UniProtKB/TrEMBL annotation:
Residues 74-101 form a coiled coil. It comes from the Bacteria. It comes from Mycetocola reblochoni. Pathway: Aminoacyl-tRNA biosynthesis; selenocysteinyl-tRNA(Sec) biosynthesis; L-seryl-tRNA(Sec) from L-serine and tRNA(Sec): step 1/1. This is Serine--tRNA ligase. Consists of two distinct domains, a catalytic core and a N-terminal extension that is involved in tRNA binding. The record marks 379 as: Important for serine binding. It catalyses: tRNA(Sec) + L-serine + ATP = L-seryl-tRNA(Sec) + AMP + diphosphate + H(+); tRNA(Ser) + L-serine + ATP = L-seryl-tRNA(Ser) + AMP + diphosphate + H(+). Keywords: Aminoacyl-tRNA synthetase, ATP-binding, Coiled coil, Cytoplasm, Ligase, Nucleotide-binding, Protein biosynthesis. NCBIfam families: serS. Homodimer. The tRNA molecule binds across the dimer. Its main location: cytoplasm.
Length: 419
RNA sequence: GGAGACGUCGCAUAGUCAGGCCUAGUGCACCACCCUGCUAAGGUGGAGUCCCUUCACGGGGACCAGGGGUUCAAAUCCCCUCGUCUCCGCCA
């Protein structure tokens, strides 16, 4: 949710942000109107209530013979108070809904436009070249006995898979390496719930335009999370926390995505699947330090990709491709040889105070007043990375070489052999 | 799934049976000052969250797990939901 005072005092800033995203600037005006209606309704109710409270005291102190007359007088007042209270509550709900419809205000420098309007910040590493015809990750996965799509489909349907043998171990190794990295950087490891309540899912901003991406359990009214960001953002909901030192968490969880609207896209292999694992960094921080922290998260991600020997680029996504909560987002995309393209391996967003305001997570500022914290999130390892690792480090016989940083987590194994 | 007990402003509790001196008391912890003096004690005062209003000082309102109802008036009475604990049942 955006800051209501910004909405009131600087609506043009918000309208501009909405335009950059390709979202409606008119939402700003309806939110301002709803806010005005809300404040007027509250004013009317409180005036009446104050009158009623004063009367209540007189009734309580009145003598037996005076009471009936007083009671007759306030009867109408009681009805008026009740009506005013209901109006105020309705106005509050409407105003809140209008404010929540507006997406986060994008930060300075975020490019306008949609998915294709990103800006490449840098390219790192050399793209691999082969003196043989390179195989794609699924073929390598099958040759090494690591990926079984057919049985995944048999048991659970399209976009499900089994990782087995060396690939199963590789994923755990990758996640363990990432966990050690974040531990060294002061993150608290967490294993998080993957089913969350509607208000938490809504608070993180995932129930907007892309809510059809999310699995919902009708019977229990719970949502399956597509990232542990959701559970980590909800962790401190409705709390006043101390961010003198930023709170840094790393959530390890299975992630579920419906992938609605991506029919026919990435149908081969494990690039786009309904279920995968991810280690996600999440930070609660003083808003004035959020930007610097964002850079630190990117640096951690780049360190991982570099040490895994991957070629990648860092892009800043355009406003229209940001989630509704994000004010700035960087993606790291690894070069995937058989696709001749960069594919997203990580994403890291600065959500400024947007999520925290929706979820009621505050801290005490210098003057002792409570104010919303800033939140950031970013991927540090996920199943999709196996694609780039396998393809980049493949050998002529269909085997692939294990990057050195992962070998300690695989009992020293240096090559995933062709079976 | 069944039965019972419970849910109060950081923690611990009073208040609920008998609705209105509850503007929710007390202890601990916390902050400031004073006194004293040595790994402490005592005194005075302050202090919750959210909203409205005000340049500000201030003023007003809401909040006793959440929601609804009864009433002039609800922490207190009634209903629903959620959660915790105990016992029983069931179970990967």
């Amino acid at each position: 949710m955006i800051d209501p005072s910004v909405l009131r005092e600087n609506p043009d800033l918000v309208r501009h942000s909405q335009r950059l995203r390709g979202a409606s600037p008119d939402l700003v005006d309806s939110a301002i109107d709803a806010d005005r209606v809300r404040r007027e309704a509250i004013g009317r109710f409180e005036e009446l209530r104050a009158e009623q409270n004063a009367f209540g005291k007189r009734v309580a102190q009145a003598s037996k013979e005076d009471k009936p007359a007083l009671l007759a007088q306030v009867k109408d007042l009681a009805a008026a108070v009740k009506a005013a209270q209901q109006e105020a509550a309705a106005a509050e709900t409407a105003s809140d809904a209008a404010a929540r419809a507006i997406q986060n205000i994008v930060l300075d420098g975020v490019p306008a436009g949609g998915e294709d309007d990103f800006v490449t910040l840098r390219e790192v590493g050399t793209r691999p070249s082969f003196d043989f015809e390179p195989r794609d990750h699924l073929e390598i996965g099958e040759i090494t006995g690591g990926i079984d799509m057919a049985r995944g489909t048999k048991v659970s349907g399209a976009r499900f898979y089994y990782l087995r043998g060396v690939a199963a171990r590789l994923e755990i190794a990758l996640m363990s390496l990432a966990l050690d990295r974040v531990l060294a950087n002061g993150f608290v490891p967490m294993i998080t719930p993957t089913l969350v309540k509607p208000e938490i899912m809504a608070g993180t901003g995932f129930l907007g335009a892309h809510s059809d991406e999310i699995y919902h359990l009708e019977e229990d009214d719970l949502y399956l999370t597509g990232t542990s960001e959701v559970a980590l953002a909800g962790y401190h909901a409705d709390e006043i926390i101390d961010v003198t030192e930023p709170l840094r968490y790393a959530g390890w969880s299975t992630c579920y995505r419906r992938e609605a609207g991506s029919y026919g896209k990435d149908t081969r292999g494990i690039i786009r699947v309904h279920q995968f694992n991810k280690l996600e960094m999440f930070v609660y921080i003083d808003p004035s330090d959020a930007d610097a922290e964002h850079q630190r998260l990117v640096a951690l991600q780049e360190g991982m990709l570099q040490d895994l020997g991957l070629s990648y680029r860092v892009i800043e996504t355009a406003a229209g491709d940001l989630g509704s909560s994000a004010a700035r987002k960087y993606d790291l995309e690894a070069w995937v040889p058989t696709q001749g393209a960069f594919r997203e391996l990580t994403s890291t967003s600065n959500c400024t105070t947007f999520q925290a305001r929706r979820l009621g997570t505050r801290f005490r500022g210098e003057n002792g007043k409570t104010q919303p914290v800033a939140t950031l999130n970013g991927t540090i390892a996920t199943t999709r990375w196996l694609v780039a690792i396998m393809e980049t480090h493949q050998n002529a016989d269909g085997s692939f070489t294990i990057p050195e940083v992962l070998r300690p987590y695989l009992g020293g194994l240096d090559v995933a052999a062709a079976l």
